[in-house]
Specification:
The chain has 126 residues and is mainly β. It is 9% helix and 30% strand.
């Protein structure tokens, strides 16, 4: 035995530290009017979102995330959400000002109709 203090514990490396799991919880609150799904409230990343869940059908488009729900012990209508496939990104917010229509095809057609060659020889439209 020596009088030296024990060496300090090695700090956890980033790969050793358990990642804090972000809560992603769904509460089912009512069936949809068409009977094909349910209205839900989703708590994700500190935000409460209103949404709907439906079963996936072959050939039908998927709007949003594909998720797996696991029941929670707290209540029969609460489920943990595991995102299997991320949905497409939300569209960008609308921009102010006129639409951008000056594509290459637009410019080519503009030049064909109103090109610089017209009117240079003293020609007039009327």
């Amino acid at each position: 035995m020596s009088d030296e203090p024990d060496p300090p514990e090695r700090p956890l490396a980033t790969s050793d530290a358990p990642e804090p799991k972000a809560d992603d919880v769904v509460m089912i609150h009512s069936p949809m009017s068409d009977g094909q799904g349910y209205h839900v409230l989703r708590l994700r990343e500190g935000n409460v979102e209103l949404g709907a869940i439906r079963n996936m059908r072959e050939g039908a488009p998927v709007h949003g995330d594909v998720v797996k729900l696991s029941p929670r012990k707290e209540h029969e209508r609460l489920y943990d959400v595991e995102v299997l496939v991320k949905g497409p990104n939300a569209p960008e917010p609308p921009r102010s000002g006129p639409a951008q229509v000056a594509t290459d095809a637009y410019r080519a057609n503009w030049d064909a109709i109103f090109g610089a060659g017209r009117g240079s020889g003293g020609e007039t439209l009327n």
